[in-house]
Amino acid sequence: MEEMKKDFYNTGYTNQLKIVAEHYGIFNDLFGQHAFFNPRVPLNITFDFDEEFVSPVNCGNLLKPAECTGTPKVTYEAAEDSWWSLVLTNPDGHLTDNTAEYLHWFVGNIPGGDVEKGDVLCDYLQPFPCRGTGWHRYVFTLYKQESKIDFSAEKREMPCHSLRQRTFQTTEFYRTYEKDITPAGLAFFQADWDETVTDVYHNTLGMKEPVFEFDWPPLHISVQKTVPHKKPFNLYLDRYRDSKEIATEILMARLKNRSPFEEEPTRRKLPNIIPWMGEERNLPSWKKTQIRKERLGMGRYRHLYENKPGP
Hints:
The protein is α+β, with helices and mostly antiparallel strands. The protein is 24% helix and 20% strand. The longest helix is centred in the last third of the chain and has 14 residues, at 243-256. The two termini are 54 Å apart.
């Protein structure tokens, strides 16, 4: 397996990773329109998931923030007398500036491939994608330095719990040091919200957690017709009723056979095994379908068996 991996790195790795990065808009969002580079140096990045397993970072794979709480382990092949910088940013999560990124980790002046001996300019902070904003990209960029660089202007306080200080722009960073650094390696993963993000906002960043919700447009209902063609008339008429009226109707049906001194009734295991008896046999098909749904607790009738609000 290692031989196959090494063979892939020596053949199609650079081109494949460049295609994937272009597909995800990495170059465009980090370095500007029409900019790109060939990631010549393969990065091997893992997060310790637990004492036995690790979560790897590849080419846009999906991880949860809970898997990325600790500082990642990064290895790559490099000459001992070379200098490198490693930057981890999120181009999708800035709360106030759509053109800026959040800096999650920055290690400069790395001697050879020993990341632990580099200068930590910004300590690691786990992903914190806001709830309701979907998947965020987290991009590792490895830069080859011409020599050791004075990064004192990039130094953040330790630990850095200020989003203002973590505001970062890759284009500005590269423009400042473009004579001394060259992008050489790339890897990224995607993460969306989980429970650990709430803890980061409250206990690490010391702020209220922002939550985003989609503003759904009002449901379009066409003009009611006197004789709708090929429409189940009971469902068609319910469409034009007040939802509160329907909810009240379901609630009254729920309370009709309930007692505050008895436990909640449960659904029968086979509710529709009961045969149609007497006059029930002559019921229209729509009414039989409605009764089956009531027995099964389907759709709005689920509230007959659960203490939840109406539809």
